[in-house]
Amino acid sequence: MADARSIPLLFGRAGIELKLPEAARPQIIQKAHLPRLPDPRAALQDALDTPIDAPPLAQLAKGRASACILICDITRPVPNGLFLRPMIETMHAAGIPLSAITVLVATGLHRPNEGAELAELVGDDWVLENVTVANHFARDAEAHVDLGPTPTRATPVFIDRRFVEAELRIATGLVEPHFMAGWSGGRKVVAPGVAGHQTIRTFHSARFMEDPLAVQCNLVGNPLHEEQLEIVRKIGEIYALNTVLDEDRNLVHVTFGEIIASHLAAVDFVTAATRIEMPRKFKTVVTTSAGYPLDKTYYQTVKGMVTPLDILEPGGTLIIASECSEGFGSEEFRDAQARLVELGPERFLATISAKSLADIDEWQTEMQLKPMRIGQIQLYTTGLTPEERRLTAVEIVPSLAEAVSASIARHNDPAVAVIPEGPYVVPVHRA
Description:
single chain; 20 strands
């Protein structure tokens, strides 16, 4: 953790410099250094050849008539171009026809990825030309299989038919802190990734969102994680490829194997480097939405507001930088934010607390209530219209430097926590 006056922050594709005033005493909060893999392709092949709690991929694919590989949507910088073709070629060599292999984009309730964006996401023209690449649509009732409710919390389980009916099922993704499910990747790529809207909206209801254990870096007693485990067990045999990246998007770790065991192995690897203990809280916190692709919309920006809350002093100021190059987000999210602006935080929460199925995307507005309860939220952005800025329900600032100076003066405290990677780093107060 270094002291500096000019600090690069992740912002869009190009980044942005935070110019701190002379009065500031910055504390830069970064992940512990994780050395990049010298030969990512060799590391990938080793993971496929020596899986965790599973036979090698070449053996898994023998005798199977079909396969479905899940990939995350464009909001996650997963190195799909590194691993999709080797996996598909291994499956094909083992006897699965290319025509029977589907790469399915786990969109959840996000919009589909198409055209040039899909090509960017897949990262390999050979894959697009040789196998079926398709998007999941959570609102298409006919595209899902009803697997019945989970035994513990009665979550309705609807999963994309293409994944359920495939003879070989593989989820791929990125393991990073997730502000509700504890960690992304693994089981989360299945649900909500390729779940029906009923399943996703149940996850996003207040009984899950307001649970104190549904927080980043926590799997113990986390109701979302526990329900995801029950869902993958309902589906049956699933494998997963999990990646871990550094701040420059370089691959630092990869695991493959049984979906639960391989995911936990990746979590074990990354936890100590990502969860950073701090000896104090701060009245001024500067963070980001992790740059492109996560900061494409204001909808995703909320994640960056929630992650550092453990080190924000009550009544303090949280300043977040997010480009929002695609604007606000879905119409449903826009409607939820409009209700927040109209009703205020307390009345908005009251209107959603009794729902068993959350309205689509209103959960993100509910998550925004968490930082609003603790302190003042300020946003620096270059990508929202005046009306969209109003609907954020937070204060828009024209300059990061000026916002930091004003916060230092307002709180009479020069200490400033700066988190360049935003939600990819989880600072926790060591009480």
